[in-house]
Structures are given as C-alpha cells and as structure tokens.
C-alpha cells in the first residue's frame, strides 16, 4: 500500500501521539520516519454517553490526536496519528486492568470464549505552522479473538509476568499472552494496537488525494 510511497512519506514530519511501544514497532516496521509525542489526554469519557463501544474508541483516538495537535500548534508538522484500542466482550468494554485482581477477573471472563478488539485511528493533517488543521481520516478496525480455556493457576502465572497490566483486556497477543489465542478473524496488528493494513491504505489515499504532499 505505501511501499512505493515511503520515500515521499519520509519527507513529511509525522507525529505518533502515543507512547505505546507496540504502535511504535508497527510504524517502524513499515520503514516510516516519525516522532513520538505522547498524548496527555485523560481517558475519562463517560462510556454510557456513546451509542456503542466503536463510537467510544473512535472519540478517544480523535481526542488523543487533537491533544497533541493543540500542544504543537506553533510547530511545523504534516500528520498526527492518534490511536486507541479496547477489548469488548458481551457489550462490555475491557480496558487496562487497574489491579492484578481486576486482570484475573478479565482473563477469567475471556477464557474459552471470543472477544472483539477494536482499534481506532485518527489522522490529522496540517499545512505549515499555524495552518489549517483537518481531521483527514477517522476509522475503526474490529478483530475477533478466540481464547483457549485457561485455568485459574495459568491465569495467575500470566499475571505474575506483569505483561497484562498495561494491555487492554489484560493480554498482549504479541507476547506471552499470544499462547492463549487459538485463532483470530481480522487484523493481527489491530490487536497489537494499530491496524497496519488499513492505516497504509488510508495514508496512500491521502497522498493520492493531495492531502499529504511530499516536500
């Protein structure tokens, strides 16, 4: 999607509005040059005010990116990438666990069942310092993840690795938690935190439309 455009993309100043090492890894794998400016947006939105989990995660991604855009308003940049990921089961949003007991509760609920990972992305573009800011793209990719049966002892052993504690849904598919996953339907990278295929597709479209112009 962007293999033939990466040299032109790398003439732009691209900002990743996230401190997530997984998102950084995904962008780095693409060969994209970018800077990391973590969003300071506090994820305190009232979930009950949204029509569904997808609307909630889209708003989080948008506000994360917008926070960075606002703080960098006097700087020259071309693109800000904001993203948010949640795990949903039975209509309930599972974000990062707040304690080991909470992680155990989440993983017990996921055991032997499927869950849906929603990863939303907001792409803001701007023409020069002080230039007009535009929400060029806002999208969400959903991936179904099927878990094996997990014993309480296995869950606690996993929690003791501390891997679940900074992950939505209390598991990381790219780490030890991946051994619990029997199969997925959708984008593996979206489960990691950034839907690689869709992102590349949208970046290519923005370049073709002239919304991202190489310098």
Automatic annotation (TrEMBL):
Q: Which GO terms describe its molecular function?
A: methyltransferase activity; nucleoside triphosphate diphosphatase activity
- Has the keyword Mitochondrion been applied to this entry? no
Which domain of life does the protein's organism represent? Eukaryota
What keywords does the record list, in alphabetical order?
Hydrolase, Methyltransferase, Transferase
Cofactor(s) for this UniProt protein: a divalent metal cation
User: What processes does the entry annotate via GO biological process terms?
Assistant: methylation
Q: Which Gene3D superfamilies match?
A: 3.90.950.10
SUPFAM superfamilies according to UniProt: ITPase-like
- Signal peptide range in chain numbering: none
Q: What is this protein called?
A: N-acetylserotonin O-methyltransferase-like protein
Q: Name its species.
A: Porphyridium purpureum (Red alga)
Cite the source lineage: Eukaryota, Rhodophyta, Bangiophyceae, Porphyridiales, Porphyridiaceae
